[in-house]
From TrEMBL:
<dbReference type="InterPro" id="IPR023214">
    <property type="entry name" value="HAD_sf"/>
</dbReference>
<dbReference type="Pfam" id="PF00702">
    <property type="entry name" value="Hydrolase"/>
</dbReference>
<dbReference type="InterPro" id="IPR036412">
    <property type="entry name" value="HAD-like_sf"/>
</dbReference>
<dbReference type="InterPro" id="IPR006439">
    <property type="entry name" value="HAD-SF_hydro_IA"/>
</dbReference>
<protein>
    <submittedName>
        <fullName>Haloacid dehalogenase</fullName>
    </submittedName>
</protein>
C-alpha cells in the first residue's frame, strides 16, 4: 500500500495538555484546602480523557457530554460541571482554569511533532490534523510556523461530526483529496482514532504519555509505514 496522506490527532498525539503548577496552586476544595497532588493529577486526566464519561452526570449534562465536541457552549457547560464534580466547587476558580485548558498556547507539543509534520510534508504527502475538539487549535501551529506543514484542519466543532463517526473521517480525506485507502491516521485512541479503519484508512496508535517520556513515537509510527 502507498500512503499519500497522513491525518494526525491533536490531543495526546501532537500536543498534550500538561499540568502547570501555577494553574492549580490557587484551587481549593469544599473546605477551602488546596488540592493535593493526586487530586490535581486526576483533575487533569479527567479534562483530557479522549473517550468515556469521567464523572457521574445528570441527564442534562450527559447530553452536553455526548455533544461537547460539536458545540463550544456545551463543551464549556459540561467541563465546568466536571471541574465542580472533581473537587473545584468555586465557580470563579473553575472558569479561570477552563479558560487556560482551552487556550492552545498552553498546550505542549511532543518532542518530535515538528519533525513528523515536516517529514510528511517534505515527502509530498498531504497532511491533516483531525481532532474532536471544541476550540480552534490552529494558533498552536501558526505560533510555531508549523501551519506551513498542514494542508487541512478538520475540527469536530466546525464540521459537526466526531470520531469515530465515519462522517468526520470522510470529510478529512475528501479535504485532502486522497482516498482513504491511501491515508494513514495517527492517534492515541484505539476507539476514537482507530475508527478510521472502517473507512479504509491505515491506523497507527501512539501512547499519550507525558511529552518528556515520549520522544519519537510519531516518527516511529511514520517510519513503520515508510513515510519518514
Amino acid at each position: 500500500m502507498t500512503i499519500r496522506a497522513v491525518l494526525f490527532d491533536y490531543s495526546g498525539t501532537l500536543f498534550r495538555l500538561e499540568q502547570d503548577e501555577s494553574w492549580l496552586t490557587e484551587l481549593t476544595n469544599h473546605d477551602g484546602e488546596p488540592l493535593d497532588i493526586e487530586a490535581q493529577a486526576e483533575l487533569m486526566r479527567r479534562m483530557t480523557a479522549p473517550v468515556g464519561q469521567v464523572v457521574e452526570l445528570d441527564a442534562e449534562h450527559v447530553h452536553a457530554w455526548q455533544h461537547r465536541d460539536r458545540d463550544p457552549e456545551l463543551h464549556r457547560k459540561v467541563y465546568l460541571e466536571v471541574l465542580k464534580k472533581s473537587g473545584v466547587p468555586h465557580a470563579g476558580q473553575a472558569k479561570a482554569l477552563y479558560e487556560r485548558l482551552i487556550d492552545p498556547s498552553q498546550w505542549t507539543p511532543y518532542p518530535d511533532t515538528e519533525a513528523a509534520l515536516k517529514a510528511a510534508a517534505e515527502r509530498g504527502l498531504k497532511v491533516g490534523v483531525l481532532s474532536n475538539i471544541a476550540f480552534d487549535i490552529r494558533p498552536a501551529f501558526t505560533a510555531r510556523g508549523w501551519d506551513a506543514y498542514v494542508d487541512e484542519f478538520v475540527l469536530s466543532f466546525e464540521v459537526g461530526a466526531v470520531k469515530p463517526e465515519l462522517e468526520i473521517f470522510r470529510k478529512a480525506v475528501e479535504a485532502l483529496g486522497v482516498p482513504a485507502t491511501e491515508t494513514l491516521m495517527v492517534g492515541d485512541s484505539e476507539e476514537a482514532d482507530g475508527g478510521a479503519r472502517a473507512l479504509g484508512c491505515e491506523f497507527a496508535l501512539v501512547d499519550p504519555l507525558p511529552t518528556a517520556d515520549r520522544p519519537d513515537a510519531l516518527l516511529t509510527a511514520l517510519r513503520r509505514f515508510g513515510v519518514a
